[in-house]
Amino acid sequence: MSTAQKCWRKNRRSTSWPEVVQQDPDCEGVSIFLAGYKAGRSASRAAASDAAAAVYTALADRTVQKVIRVRDQKTSNQAISVMDKPRILFVAHSLGGIIVRRILCRERAVFGNKRVGLLLVASPSYGSGLANIIGGIPFLSWKLAKGLARSSQELIDLDNDFKRLLEDQEIPALRGQNLIESQAPFFLGWLKRVVDTESASRYFGSEVVPATNHNTIQNPSSPHDQVHRKLRQSAQKWGLMTRQCFVDHLKELRLALDEQSRAFSGSVPVAEETKQEVFLRVRSAAIGTASEADAPDWLENSGIDSLISGQFRGNLDRPYHDLTAEDIAATSKALDRLWNELGPYHA
After folding, report:
1. Which of 24, 34, 184, 318 has its CA 20 to 30 A from that of 80?
2. Who has greater pLDDT, 134 or 280?
């Protein structure tokens, strides 16, 4: 069994996946939290349940300073926990996927108002045949291995509970992806895979990663590796990359405000219904931009939050027919300042 640090690194000299995230300019603005749990023979008899509880406690603990701020490469010294974040992406390898699914099921009410991503990397969601073999070997037969067996009632119950969570949309903004190993490690050559396709692709869309096994699929060495690119693409697709989400909203708002300026300029006759539609598009884009600006670490101390909620957003809270030319000009000026503040982020 590995640790939260060793799991993501091929060897002592190689780059770990968290370090690859730090090197990727497209991941600027994210924070990384490494969650560990006991998983070896010394783990308790209720290892999976205890591990889920321990990981969630760490995620909610504001005194645990393990959040790495990618922007300035410094460890955060804020009194903030992972669970304080409105967007969380879990990257879970092997048993980690079972632990995370258990957390999501157990704390579904807490995650209900968050945007959550789940990247399951070679995770035996419905068990592994190798665990059945290990469970039958006396000196390797620890409780956790037995719990990963294909016939494990513990996994069957979790599988049913997680499927209900997805079907009932108890976490409405939960999105996921499965990554599957393509072959077994050389020392287990008699196996096709440690985690077979059926078990590794149970809930979401799936993709087999070529030339990977259960011990290497979670060790991309650069931002160009397929596994990392899939992480980045999924995070962007699910709206979890705060910088990109904010910039997308900002661009949408820029276009909407330009359209509003033309509609309200008076130089060309515009129907009242059209003006209202334009204004509603501006309002929607402004609210989206403001919501994206409320949380990201990279906007701290920039004054952008107060700018949006004050001069900028305040004007848009008024009925469209009450807006004056001065209001439109003030809103556009605030947006210009916002745009300039973000210079390098939308270049």
Report:
1. 24
2. 280
Q: With the CA atoms of 8, 75, 38 and 213 taken in that order, what torsion angle do they form, in degrees rounded to the nearest 10? A: -10
Q: How is residue 38 written in tokens?
A: 């006991």
**Among 100, 95, 97, which Cα is nearest to 142's?**
95
Residue 1 within a domain: no
Compute the mean pLDDT over every residue in the chain, rounded to the nearest whole number. 76
**Backbone torsions φ then ψ of 290, nearest 5 degrees:** -65, -40
| The Cα angle at residue 82 between residues 78 and 83, in degrees rounded to 5 | 120
Q: Which helix (H) or strand (E) holds 120?
A: strand 115-121
The residue from 189, 205, 237 where one domain ends is: 237
Query: Is it the case that residue 251 has pLDDT exceeding 70?
Result: yes
| One domain for residues 213 and 164 | yes
Phi, psi of 205 (to 5 degrees): -60, 150
Q: Are residues 147 and 291 in the same domain?
A: no
Decide: 10 and 221 in contact? Cβ < 8 Å: yes
Backbone dihedral angles phi then psi of residue 219, each to the nearest 5 degrees: -125, 55
- Structural contact between residues 325 and 261, judged by C-beta atoms closer than 8 angstroms: no
Same domain, 226 and 257: no
Co-location of 192 and 275 in the same domain = no
> Distances from the Cα of 95 to the Cαs of 40, 120, 213, in angstroms?
11, 10, 15
Say whether both 171 and 210 belong to one domain: yes
The residue ranking higher by pLDDT, 306 or 243, is 243
- CATH code where residue 217 lies: 3.40.50
Q: What are phi and psi of 172, to 5 degrees?
A: -55, -35
DSSP annotation of 203: S
**Is residue 189 over pLDDT 90?**
no
Please give the pLDDT value at position 231.
94
Counted residue by residue, the chain has a size of: 347
- Give the residue among 96, 235, 98 at the shortest CA–CA distance from 161: 98
Output 329 or 74, whichever has higher pLDDT.
Answer: 329
Q: Last residue of some domain: 237, 259, 286?
A: 237
